[in-house]
Structure formats: C-alpha cells, structure tokens
Specification:
Strand order of the largest sheet: 3-2-1-4-5-6
CATH superfamily: Glycogen Phosphorylase B
Helix content: 25-40%
Order of helices and strands: EHHEHEHEHEHEHH
Structural class: alpha/beta
Distance between the termini: 43 Å
Strand content: 5-15%
Number of strands: 6
Largest sheet: 6 strands, parallel
CATH class: Alpha Beta
Length: about 200
Amino acid sequence: MKLCFVTVGATASFNLLIQAILEQSFLRELRAHGYTNLLIQYGKDGKSLFDEFLQQYPPGSEGHHGLVIDGFDFNSDGLDHEMRLAKAWPSEGRLGGLIISHAGSGSIMDALRLGVPLMVVPNPTLKDNHQQELADILQEQGYLISSHYQEIASSLDRAERLRAQMAQWPPVSRAQEVPPPSLEQVMSDELGFLD
C-alpha cells in the first residue's frame, strides 16, 4: 500500500483543492507514481463533491485508476492516525506515501513530525493569505513542496524528489548572505509565540 492523504483542515472550506484532487489528471498521475490509496479529509463542505465523484465514478471503475479512494469530513480525535498511514511501515506492507495539506500551521507541524513528504496547497480564498507566506518560507528551506491547487498533478514529481532529499534531513539551504529563519522561528512566528 502506498497512500496519499489529503486534508483541507477543520475550519475553512477548500473545495478548490477537493475538486483538484478528484480530477482525472491527478488520479492518473497519482497511480503513475505507484500510489494505491487516496484518503481525503474533505471538511465540512466537501462531502457533496466527494459524493458526486463516487456517483460518476463508482469504486472499481476506470475513473478510480486502480486507486482505493475513501473520504471523511472531520475527525474529532485529530488526524494523527490518518497521517501515519502515509508513513513507510514495511512490516505492515506500507510504502512511504505523501500528505497533501492546506497550509494551516497545525497540519504542517503534524505532518513534518512524521518525516513524510508534504505538499502544501495554500487556500487562495482566505482573506489574509498568511498560508502562502508560511508555505513559501518552508519550501525555500527544503521542508516541503508548495503548490497551487491547479498544479498538484505536476507537483507530484517534486514531492517524490523531496522524499529522496529527506534522507539528508535536515534540508540544506542555498548559500545566502543572511540565513533564512529556522523552522522553529517560522512556526513560533506563525503561532504567535513570543521570546
């Protein structure tokens, strides 16, 4: 099993990401990269999109591209269990997968702790798009892949390259005159922690 877990978070709707994940081009590309399972946390407003997809492409149909596709709206216990399904676990027959997340700082921190490749997709419909700033900084430092929702299929190659780079963790930043802020500094700033 090689699983791609997608989360849109618990507070804001992100139907643009759900639609992009369910596009045939993305599913085809996911399968081409060896994935067997797609698990989607579609949030409070994404159920209708997920149900429409299943009506149009029932399980086992060509529209699933050989993938087992499941979804749910919310997990009050958090997403730790679902995220861990993307972690390599050879004794259970699991290959290392991928987490695709909205760019919420909590989701990013949870995914980074697991050491699983992370693709972050900032929600462009948010009024103050702090998600894009966070995603850009963390991508620049080599911690994750930042992608626009319309480019997730083509970003899968970058996610697989990130997997190889993660073997050399922590990431090596490009030489710069002023070193970029550390992950700890970025997360502290994002979460509002003061020194």
